[in-house]
Amino acid sequence: MSTFRRDFITKPIFSWASGVLPPMSDTEREALEAGDVWWDADLFTGNPDWAKLLAYPQATLTAEEKAFLNGPVDELCAMLDDWKINWEWRDLPPEAWDFIKRHKFFGMIIPKEYGGLGFSPYAHSEVVRKLSSRSLTAAVTVMVPNSLGPGELLMHFGTPEQQQRWLPRLADGRDIPCFGLTSPEAGSDAASMIDSGIICKGNFEGREVLGLKLKWHKRYITLGPVATLLGLAFKAYDPDHLLGPREELGITVALIPTDLPGVEIGRRHLPAMQVFQNGPNWGHDVFIPLDYIIGGQERIGQGWKMLMTALAAGRGISLPSLSAAGAAYAARTTGAYARVREQFGISIGKFEGIEEPLARIAATAYLLDAARRLTCAALNQGHHPAVISGIMKLQATERMRIAIDDAMDIHAGKAVIDGPQNYLGNLYRSVPVGITVEGANILTRNLIVFGQGAIRAHPYLLEEMNALGDEDHARGLDAFDKAFWKHVGHSITTLFRAWGRSWSFGLFAPAPDAGEASSFYRQLSRYASAFALCADMALLTLGGALKRKEMLSARFGDILSELYLLSAALKRWQDEGRQHEDFAALEWCMATGFRTIENRFAEICANLPNRFVGVILKFLIQPFGARVLGPSDRVVHACAQLVLEPSIARDRLTPDLSHVEDDRGLARLEKAFRLVTCAEDVARKMHAARLHDWQEAVAKGVITQGEAGRIAAAQEAVAKVIEVDDFAAEALSPIYKKAADVHQFFQELGEQRAAS
Questions:
Q1: Which of 87, 270, 398, 416 has its Cβ near the most Cβ atoms within 10 Å?
Q2: Cα separation of 627 and 533, whole Å?
Q3: CA-CA-CA-CA torsion for 205, 207, 210, 213, nearest 10 degrees?
Q4: Known catalytic residue: 716?
Q5: Angle, vertex CA 650, rays to CA 645 and CA 655, nearest 5
Q6: From CA 149, how far away is CA 153, in angstroms rounded?
Q7: pLDDT at 500
Q8: Each residue's pLDDT tens digit, 495-509
Q9: Of residues 438, 464, 587, 598, which has the active-site annotation?
Q10: What pLDDT is attached to residue 416?
Q11: Of the candidates 222, 229, 130, the residue with the CA atom closest to the CA atom of residue 177
């Protein structure tokens, strides 16, 4: 029977599919083969196993990692003056660079056997998170060597000799690494680079060896201006066939000491007024031996897969950690400012117009840190979830952008006027950098999340594609027959599952016993089954053309992203002991995510090119249209309150940020917040008596002298918070400085003449 099915039913389908499937480039295949799948694969089944999610161990820190965070990381934070770093020095101070090297910040991920710290991905994330709440320049400086770069590539792909030679030097800071990928011709399409390496013989350190003559032009290279060891991506060619019959060998990655002849380190870029070291570099006929290729000669042409594998981990740590810190920082500062700042005689945090963006900031902080922790838990277990890393980079940086915009709106002029007292301005300016690097968000949303996710995470699609691409026709047909009919059975089951769950509004969808959060699991089960059905129908009707339907792909990616992020929020709620005080944040996340999911389903059904399928899908999964409106006013109010009052819930929402006691804006704000909330009972008495002056309140017996001291201290602290900086004209412009110098010269000259 199976032979009959294969030869008479499957074979025509196989022939048809082989004709319509677009050819897959080597770089596409290598990107798909890089990393692995994790919870995203469960979501793609349409029937996620919630027990499995909740059983995943939490990401935790070792005692050594905690000591590092509470010791060297706090010490480094105390050394950093973000205003001076950005506006006076334009760099980290020398003592900070020395401290970073001495305490092996550049070697956090390098194993101890090579002199590194051997920290977990979660510890790496926590260090970046705390540093970025003090100085983005310091955070970027530390995170880049521990992300995509020579260190990680050597650990995964280097030869034992390369690891022994280079990793100890990277760990202790003798070498500062950078990685050259982006070039003027190749931005998001990095595989189109024209940087080249020609296989040839040449002299190296006094002997003739077989090697590569390199030419390149790279730009936007973080740490490039100060790097001593450059990881370089280029295309290798063998025109003289010194290695074999092939001429085009593919993308390759090598280590280039920057003191080699022909290496030119350019001047510095200034990315959105951020002063972390970044700039271009060039190579002019730079000769290296073949053993400078990471992994040696056998790794020639494997560079793209190596890069994608490393990126699958690094992209899930660095920018998501920075973004989660940014959202938490915005929640803590904006909640405090809204609490202490008064207009029209009341705290601005009491206005509903402020509560709405404030709730959005607080819930975003909850959601992003939940997703960061879940992703780090996967990385700690040895997974390299490429699709999830893409989701994290995209969604974390986009949501941070919204949170920072909201924070700026609430702070208004306080955050607009720059100076040492402004604790938000530099974070606001930095947002476009995160949006752009490690895969621009437009590219990631439209092409990567669903484009790769549909192939990698789908239960059967990759098997089918591999079978269709098999050069052995008979073997490919046999493999396709098995995968295809499993896919058909899966699709039929998914259709009825999605139909039933959608028409019953998820009432009977599976969910763990999670108390008041159980209904959220049911809705996610409902949406996951609808997602799996719609994805199958889109793939069936569009085939390879789906990757050119970028707006449809982006909508599917949005749904997959929401399913992952909301799963993370539920996991956090469970792991933290179902804290009732935090339920408002969870409820806000769910209502907002469900609204996005339902809107995207409606848009997909309305825009599928096959209108018959679009109408049928709408009938099956959304017969009454998109019905979720988002969080209610009650939820918004409760969520905003999380950051307007001192509480354990507020501390849980904004944990492990840097707190340096100085007389700058952030320290002033924290002090004012404490004093204002401690004096609230006194303020209430004065308000009831319609009094604003504490001296008058004492005179009339409304408050005691001790209470007056509390309210006076609070008012003084608030006055310091709402202060903004101003500068002498000559401090801001050399034009005025020159005029002031001339004025002073003539003034002194006049005084001398008068004296004579």
A1: 398
A2: 20
A3: 50
A4: no
A5: 145
A6: 6
A7: 95
A8: 999 999 999 999 999
A9: 438
A10: 96
A11: 229
